[in-house]
Amino acid sequence: MKLQDPEAQRRQKLILEWPSIAGPKIAPHTKPSLGKNGSLYVWVDQSTLAFELNQRYRQNLLKRTQAVLGEENVNKIYFRVGQIR
Fold first, then answer.
1. What is the pLDDT of residue 2?
2. CATH at 59
3. What is the C-alpha separation between 67 and 65, in angstroms, rounded?
4. How many domains does the structure of the chain reveal?
């Protein structure tokens, strides 16, 4: 059995938990990605949704992600428009 490094474990946990973090309306239109230095990048498939998430739901999504991954691992959230796969 090979042990994964903590960073890979956090990334995997984020992907698995994202539907419960973002909720059923947001999750299908978004894809999270952990960056360096505690940054969370959320790729969004529509610019209007990215704007709304940035304006209205930024803190909520950040706090919910921190509850899952820890405040020391996620401290900033950015929304980017692009294709999600």
1. 60
2. 3.30.300.180
3. 5
4. 1
Residue 27 CB partners (closer than 8 Å, separation 6+): 18, 19, 21
Give the pLDDT of residue 4.
Answer: 74
Give tens-digit pLDDT for 23-64.
Answer: 999 999 999 999 989 999 999 999 999 999 999 999 999 999
pLDDT value at position 18?
Answer: 98
Assess if residue 16 is contained within a domain.
no
Predicted TM-score of the model (pTM):
0.90
In a domain, 58, yes or no: yes
Q: Assess if residue 1 is contained within a domain.
A: no
What's the domain range around 85? 29-85
83 found inside a domain? yes
